[in-house]
Fold Mannosyltransferase.
Amino acid sequence: RLLSAFLNIIHDCDETYNYLEPLHYILFGSGMQTWEYSSQFALRSYLYLLLHAPPAVAPALLLGAGRKLAGFYLLKAALGLASAATEAWLYRAVARRYRPAVAHALLLFLCVSSGMFAASTSMLPSTFTMYALTAAAAGMLEGRPYPVIAAAAIGVVWGWCVAGFAFLPYALWVLVAAPLLPAVGMLLLSLVGTLGPLVLVDRYFYGAWTASLWNFVRYNVVGGGDSALYGVEGPAFYLRNGFNNFQLLLPLALAAGGSGAMLCLLACVSPLYVWLAAITALPHKEERFLYVAYPLVCLAAAASFVSLLDLARRLLGAVLPRRAAALAVRAAAALFLAATCLLAISRTAALVINYGAPLQIYKHLPEASGPGQPVAVCVGAEWYRFPSAFFLPGDRCRLRFIKSGFTGLLPRQFDPGEGGTRAAPPHFNDRNREEAANYWPSAAGCAYAVTLQEEGQGQGGAFIDELGDTDDWEAVAALSFVDNARSPQLFRAFYLPRLSAVRNRHVQYVLLRR
């Protein structure tokens, strides 16, 4: 998990603009605001941000404001440790209740999974709820209903409320496993303990009493808005993404119900199937939605793997000598595990090597601190890969958007003069309509720009960004970046030494200076 903290990329611009940027504003006074944080709409709770604030601000408090990038990585490390803690709890619960083979397979799958590498250190509500669901699964296996109730309340109220569907199987288990009145009392206590701080924190930051939890549900679930405005995918979307992130483990996990795996383990992993069905039914799909159940994919795969080995021993034992049957099963298991590890490492390496440039290019910016005018760092078509203001050195750098091919609604800087977090900027809407006022008036005001170029192209020759005269720019740094549109899917999704470098098409991820 610590490797993920320091090597993982940012997989979704939602992490940057809906979480890292407002967190940066709270801690350091600058950051981008999305329409969801406008007090007019108030879809996001600031409590979620405050939960992540201590590790993000600690280096700046101890070592000076210039250490905010260290705060980013300390935050990621804290997320990795939180994930490791809940995974360790799940491993211990499985080891205590079932055969060591299931627990050992689970541990291996959790450690090598490229899906867990990606999800475990993302600052996203789906990841936070993943921690809670993993803790609830461990509590269920240990036969402890009250931690299950508490984990569900924390995951749904402080994390991602839509993921309440994933906890429904555990709610049914609690009804069977716990006395009704104590369970209801624990539920009420958990709701008061989670909803109370959420409402009070949002009252402070939005400047009015608001129900961000209900606002979010109303917009995304009960028809107050239209999440499909942000993209629609087909029913096979999560199967494709699941295979990319879990490879051979995904079919094992989906087959767990018919593999003869232990009944209680099947009940424990049932939220995976409930959640997969629920999010597949939604028209708007994102890879991060499935993060919630990633550890359960590993658990279901582990149970299925051990059950299939048992079945193979019985079948081969009927036609081969006992020793030969055991050796054959061990050899097959070793080959499967080796293939699983190699595929997972290949996928993780592809993500880091092929798409790591956005997190590295901003480190080449010089520090701009002290009195003076803000330094405009401009992005066009690459706006969605910006890793957050934690990567802008000093306290005067500001992200600005210049016109590109994008036609949706972009964020804008939080403005303390308008009220900061309490403001309702007029240039926001909930229909994803483009607002011209959210763009920087002209690239002439940009001190730096980040864009993509063909290798060997002139300094200002961006793909579709309106950067002006190419003679006005010089390259500060350029890093290799895989061009998805012109690279074979296999070689861009999985890293194959030598072959990937030859088969993939690369462009340059460039930092330009005016």
Remarks:
- The first strand starts at residue 32 and ends at 33.
